Every structure is written in C-alpha cells, then in structure tokens.
C-alpha cells in the first residue's frame, strides 16, 4: 500500500522490513542515488521530465481542418490576424 503526498511516495513494506534482504531490495530498486535503480534515469526517467509545449507540425493539419469547419472561429481568427501584427507574424501563437 502507498500514499501519495505532494512530492513524496510512501511505501509501507510491513513484513519486508524485518528481513535485511527485503529492505535492501526496496532501497536498491527505488533509490535515487543507486545507479541501477528505476528512478535513477533508466526506467522511469521520461515520467519525471517536464513537458511543456508542442510541435507545430503535429497540429497544423488539424488546425486547418478546424478552421475550415467552423465559420465563427475562422472569422475571429482572420480578424485577429488583420488587427494584431505580432499575432500575424507568429505561427506558433496562431496554432
């Protein structure tokens, strides 16, 4: 059983703590400083990497399709491009 608080995971090992081998296994498997641990950047590394943003090429075709099918959105988008110079020149903001 485990509880998750902000930034922490508690693992209750009940009977495992009575044996040095059980405790050793837990510490070596999830320890941050152990080179072979899951949390040292081998197995779970992508989970801990913060991802923000997107790749525009992935959404360009979808954005074109959405604009084609939604007249109100298309009008608002065109108006924004006509009236806002910075928006007109920044394709990333447009997506």
Describe this structure in words.
The protein is mainly alpha-helical. The protein has two domains: 47 residues, no CATH class; 39 residues, no CATH class. Helices cover 54% and strands 8% of the residues. The chain contains six helices and two strands. A two-stranded antiparallel ribbon has the order 1-2. Helix 3 crosses helix 4. It starts with a strand and ends with a helix. The model has no long low-confidence stretch (mean pLDDT 75).
Annotate the secondary structure layout.
Elements: E1 2-5, E2 8-11, H1 20-30, H2 45-48, H3 56-69, H4 71-83, H5 85-89, H6 91-94
Antiparallel strand pairs: 1-2
Helix pairs in contact: 3-4
Mean pLDDT: 75
* C-alpha end-to-end distance: 43 Å
Give the amount of beta strand, in percent. Answer: 5-15%
Strand tally: 2
The total count of helices amounts to 6
Contiguous runs where pLDDT drops below 50 for at least 5 residues = none
Number of domains: 2
Shape from CA axes? Answer: rod-shaped
Helix content: 40-55%
Major beta-sheet overview = 2 strands, antiparallel
Strand order of the largest sheet: 1-2
What would you report as the Rg, rounded to the nearest angstrom? 25 Å
Which structural class do the helices and strands define?
mainly alpha
Q: What order do the helices and strands follow?
A: EEHHHHHH
